[in-house]
Amino acid sequence: MTLPEPTPDISAFLASSVHDMKNSISILIGGMEKILAAADRESPEYQDMSHMMYETKRINGNLIQLLTLYKLGNHLYPFSPEDWLLDDFIHETLSQQQPLLESRGIAFEVDCEPDLIWPFDADLVGGVVGHALNNAIHYTQNRIRLVVRRAAEGLELRVEDDGRGYPQKMLDDGVAAMQGVDFQGGSTGLGLYFSAMVARLHRNKGKTGSIRLENGGAWGGGCFVLCLP
Amino acid sequence: MSLPQQQLPADFGDKSFLIIDDFHGMRSILRDILRSCGVNPRNIATAANGGEAIALLEKNRFDGVLCDFNLGAGKNGQQVLEEAKFRSLIGPGCAWIMITAEKTTDVVMGAAEYQPDAYLIKPITEATLRLRLDKIWSKKEAFADIDRAVVEQDFLRAVKLCDQRLATDRSNAGELLRLKCQLLLSAGEHEQARSLCSAILAERDVPWAKLGLARAQFAAGELAEARALLEALVAENRTFLEAYDWLVAVLKAQDDLTKAEEVLEQAARLSPNSVTRQKILGEVALQLGKLDNAEKAFRKSVALGEHSVLKTADAYLGLAKTCSAKDNPNEALQVLGTLTKQFNDDEVKVKALATEGMVHHKAGDPIAARKVAQQLGEALNQSGVRTDSATTLEMAELMLVTGEKSQAVALLQDEVRNNPEDKTLLGRVQQVFDTASMGAEGSALVEASRKEALELMNQGVLLVRDGKFDEALAALRTACERLPSNVRVLLNFAHLALGIMQKTAVDPALVDEIRERLLTVRRLAPGEKRCAQLMSQLDTLTR
């Protein structure tokens, strides 16, 4: 008689492996930054290297999202909304994307109400905006714009590009329908799922945060919108 | 706004740094980043573990520390930070950045006073580090005068400085309000804290303001309201550990230990590495008679304390008591032996003896118990150490069961004299007498000591009324010596001495004496309003 195999707690293994992978990726990214900083910008190696950096950062972003979702699900994520001067926050978030934007020759604009202060969890919201920017970098022709302003629902952060925009079906179905996995299309739904979760965590006076997708903005391309109450 | 490349980068050319990371690869990456930030490589020190880090911190003053949370075996990053702060190895201007692979409760949730200035999640880039350091240093500069007032223990001056800064500094407003709220609560100005929090909450749901409101309610004795608010707060903010700790305090005040244990268990699951929380959990479980839970929590606290400067003798004492309650006196004695080897301190020695005597008594060895009780009596007389009320009552119990009646009576009378107005404590003292079948004799003794203390306290007041200030001061000084833990006597002394100095001249020796007495009050009764007011007056007089 054979004993049944014990069922491992896959989610705990996933979480600990992801944690471990993150350490390796940190070393990778650190090394690449050093090489990129020293490389000749006109060389083909620079382009290859910057593409590698883009992919590595994408992996890192996904791992962070996976880990965060795991922690949130187990109530182990220390959600910590704090007052942020939006100028500072955007500065910091953009600094992560700056080398990539530059290496791809993408023009970037920021339109942020000056002296705007809002409370939110900067690590989570930074992850959401970073993901949206990464997407925009992928779909844009050559321009991206970040708009931060006070709106009726609260603070509005918009990432706009000048690409073809989202397919009509995606807009019609709304955010709720976009969380399935689509391996063919290369979309795991993780980013949107994560973004929606982060938005919902932010609450104030009975209102919760939200995300939505639009076509339009300054150049008629795709817009990702995050609202925080 | 300007884009990153247009912003003038901050220059860190004159700053010194310590990098703490167990991976060589990470250390060299961080070193490269600091170099690109303009830091002179000669001013960058590195450590591969907690021990090396502490040795470097002992020898140098760093402007910034980049510390990985996970340092392999030995101390973790949080424990290094705790030791550095506890032993003042870093100055108030030092920016401590904790680097973690991920954000998780067991990393982030230390005690509030041992928080780093920022947590950064790997990978660290030059731009992020530059921005963060810049932000931390400019905030430290903005808060420097407030920090100084806090270090000098003048909470009310710190509140005033917060108000001044709030009038102009909008970007730090949230942080200033939070700090002001904490300062008001520490100064015993609970009603001011209450209105501050209520005003904030009318605008927005801010968790710390809810906690502040609950603390104000707790201080005002509104236990049911405070409990309801804190329960809602932890339900909405499942990882807000400070709220759990205050909820436990309220539940203990309500004598609902069952619920307190439950809440502590939840908090300990979120943040399993807190030496202090595990110790409190053990104490509550022991009081409830849940010996297995108590043992587990005390053992955990002792183990966590191995690398921590926050390790506490109480965890060992609790573990010894638990072993004794589980009829395992040998292990209890062994734990006490380890305790006295670990802590070289008169108070710990006395507490350990009190526990040791009870272990022998419970194990049915009256001869050993009596011998320890006598040792304890000698130790008390020699060291003149003052213990907290709970320990004093324990010592008196031991003296009574071992026949050292006169020692017991002296301890209990002393306790009554120092707290003649604390009805709960008087009740407990009476209980100790009752248990020893000394009910009637005990209540006469309690009453006599209470009267004696009140007379001593009134003497000074009467002399003041008659305008005999110098005699009053001498009388109150005598009262302070006789009743060294009597909060009201200590405060009256400080009040009178300050009044005299305000009319005549500042006497440095008297200033020191007042400060020392007020610091005793702060230790005995944190959040005592009169103490904060007198501290502020003293500060104004001597600045």
Structure description:
The complex is a heterodimer of chains A (229) and B (543). Chain A has helices at residues 10-38, 44-73, 86-103, 122-139, 168-173, 190-201, and strands spanning 82-85, 107-112, 117-120, 143-151, 154-161, 203-204, 207-208, 210-216, 221-228. By secondary structure, chain A is an alpha+beta fold. Chain A folds into two domains: 9-77; 82-228, 2-Layer Sandwich (Heat Shock Protein 90), CATH 3.30.565.10. In chain A, the strands form three sheets. Chain A has a five-stranded mixed sheet with strand order 2-4-5-9-8. In chain A, strands 1-3 form a two-stranded antiparallel sheet. The model of chain A is unreliable at 181-186 (pLDDT under 50). Chain B is mainly alpha-helical and 543 residues long. Among the domains of chain B are: 17-149, Response regulator (Rossmann fold, 3-Layer(aba) Sandwich); 153-238, no CATH class; 460-542, Alpha Horseshoe (Serine Threonine Protein Phosphatase 5, Tetratricopeptide repeat). In chain B, strand 1 (17-20), helix 1 (24-36) and strand 2 (44-47) form a beta-alpha-beta unit. In chain B, helix 7 packs antiparallel against helix 8 (173-186) and helix 23 (439-465) packs antiparallel against helix 24 (469-482). The longest helix of chain B has 27 residues, at 439-465. Chain B is globular and about 80 Å long. Mean pLDDT of chain B is 92; it is low at 1-7. Chain B: The modification 4-aspartylphosphate is found at residue 68. Chain B: Keywords: Coiled coil, Phosphoprotein, TPR repeat. Chain B: InterPro entries: CheY-like_superfamily (IPR011006), Sig_transdc_resp-reg_receiver (IPR001789), ST_Response_Regulator (IPR052048), TPR-like_helical_dom_sf (IPR011990), TPR_rpt (IPR019734). Chain B: Residues 216-270 form a coiled coil.
